[in-house]
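Please check our next protein.
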Amino acid sequence: MALSAQQIPRWFNSIKLISVITAPQLRQCSQRAGKTLLCGFSAQPQMSSDNFFLQWGFKTYRTSSMWSGCQSANSGRQESNSARSTLLPSVNEQSQKTQKTPNFDSELSLEGLDDLPPLSPLQPVSEEEAVQIIAAPPLPPVSFTLRDYVDHSETLQNLVLLGLDLSKIEKQPDAANLLLRLDFEKDIKQILLFLKDLGIEDNQLGTFLTKNYAIFSEDLENLKTRVAYLQSKNFSKADIAQMVRKAPFLLSFSVERLDNRLGFFQKELQLTVKKTRDLVVRLPRLLTGSLEPVKENMKVYHLELGFKLNEIQHMITKIPKMLTANKRKLTETFDYVHNVMSIPHHVIVRFPQIFNTRLFKVKERHLFLTYLGRAQYDPAKPNYISLDKLVSMPDEIFCEEIAKASVRDFEKFLKTL
């Protein structure tokens, strides 16, 4: 059992093991005057003068004068008196009353110390005891990184083991204040079990928590209520797990907000309940992100690009990302496909993947087909090439099956652009 700094001086005062050093022993000690005696954590008995006091080598209570008697045989008596004066007063008094001489080979048992009463935190501490107290290094009051706190926080240690990326978390100003206040067993463990029961795998927890560490500030009952709401809207457990993985902030929104979002997409897009459910399962960030891009894109498709509502419905149910795509990218892609490649609206509606493709890729392949005389996109004519094949195939298959040329020829052509 380890002794506290307050118990050590009381333990010394309770020791009553004393003996008398004989003249031959004194001469023997004098002969070893050239050797250095250490008081580290040795458990060997130490001799100081005519009266022998068994000490156990605690650094904080050794006195250099107790050993000076062993360095010179001629000054043995004087050094003996000096060593006696440096002993604790209680030990000197007890040494005069003790008659029994212990065996040098005997060891002091510490079992009795288990019965010592606990010390009160309000008990006064002397200066001599206070300087012996070793305090743990304090937490840095200010730091630019959470790594300075990991060694002091069991919560951070466990989260790092789960895969939490501290380099991303610490960029958020409130992250450290939240995580360092939480207790892993009381505040975090139950949330982790809830997420695992929801369908989040162990290897997915780190990514999820890095994006939404604030879920630990949510009440567990509120989280369960939001899941129950989604289940009431006929979202399956697999659907909910997929939505939470793709949109980690989903469960941080109230039931009222989730209900308003579902109602918005069903009303504005005039979708059926099933199509609305399928839409948000495929792109769950529609429930967590801003609605402004969605509203803006709906106007672009209808007013600027000239698509009808039923055409817009068809395209977004096949490519939900069209609702949140960049407005400039949408208009540039449509302008090139419709005005340069001369593809009409009804053909574009059948292959909305064109809006999810990089424009330079469309340009490169179209120009290569035009150079070969094979740029034919009318389904009513021979050698028809669909937009789907134009953008989805890798270069090798595109060259072999569509362009009827080699990849080397395609690469040479691209160098001329």
Remarks:
- The two ends are 81 Å apart (CA to CA).
- The first strand starts at residue 18 and ends at 20.
- Residues 172 and 280 are 28 Å apart (CA to CA).
- The chain is about 50% helix and 0% strand.
